[in-house]
Amino acid sequence: MNQRDIIAAAMGARFLDGNDPSIRLRCPICGQPITPSTSVWHCTSEPAHEYAEMDGVPLLLHSERSVFRAEDFHARPRTTFKDPPAWAARLGRLLPSPSRDVSSEECRLQLARLLAARPAGRRRVLVIGCGDGSAGYGVMAEVEGTQWLETDVSLAGRARIVCDASDLPFEDGQFDLVICVAVLEHVLEPQRCVDEMHRVLVDDGLVYATTPFMQQVHMGEYDFTRFTRSGHRWLFRAFDEVGSGVATGPASVLVWSVEYFLMAWTGSVGLRRVIKGLTRLLFGWMTLLDPLLARRVPANDAAGGFFFIGRRAAGPTLSAREMLGYYRGADALK
At a CB cut-off of 8 Å and minimum separation 6, what does 24 contact? Predict the structure, then answer.
């Protein structure tokens, strides 16, 4: 067992992989069941669709619809992950980051309570875009009996299955909670991804997502979309709202804006890193205001991003007309 699994076992949680017999896989292309393997995975259709395995991780990607291909992983690239130099990484850990999520601790507490309230055996969590796990799951991982399956579109992180959220390789109704943090801005069809989350959840399953609104381009060519709070709610209209609000506050937006304004003057990678470090050194303290600002109604018009916690419903829970009344910004105070 690795350190992560040892810690998880001590907390009563368990991390799964694609070979776990309790996970029912399906072909992302044709929807037929997939047979786990030790080298090449394949579905049961005729002719079968085959999927490669790298470092023990299956690459279950729709070859025509995804922006990724299995051959992209042969050289074990970082794909969406781009590592800064060691000095830049160390400096980044010391300086205040405008990527701070002021809602994460409260959301984790709420989700932990919701998971703990579910019957034993109904605490399976699917993580879409797990990355390197540095964000952590907090008290959610301490809920006894939780089972975690981490996925991503990179071999560089902790993913046990490489898959695209647009075509999740899982049969219907298997998960009790889907976590999708800072992912939907990086997919071409966000609504399709949310529909896939809805499909793989049990009838009363939960979803937790955070998505940016006012944030500059990040991850380069893998950045596509932004959402207002109302737009984010409409995206999850097939879910009953359990909670929602500001995840990244207006102060972070301001720091990002100064940073990117200065970086717009140069294409030099080294100089851009210096600008980023100096901006955060001089203005990073402002992000300490975000926990206060995030509670104010006008912040919904200027937030860096939003979170949404929802419970799966049988169909749309909001009509198009009702969305006008959902608006939560400053104009709602008039």
Answer: 33, 170, 171, 174
For the chain, list residues with pLDDT below 50.
Answer: 1-3, 5-10
Domain encompassing residue 118: 91-333
76's torsion region: left (phi>0), alpha (psi -120 to 50) or beta? left
* Domain count of the fold of the chain: 1
- Residues 68-106 have pLDDT tens digits of 888 888 766 666 666 666 766 676 777 788 888 999 999
In a domain, 11, yes or no: no
How far, in Å, CA of 50 to CA of 60, rounded? 9
Whole-angstrom distance, CA of residue 286 vs CA of residue 225: 26
Q: Could you give the count of Cα atoms lying within 13 Å of 216 in the half-sphere of its Cβ?
A: 14
Residue 122 lies in a domain: yes
302: in domain: yes
- The reply to whether 160 falls in a domain is yes
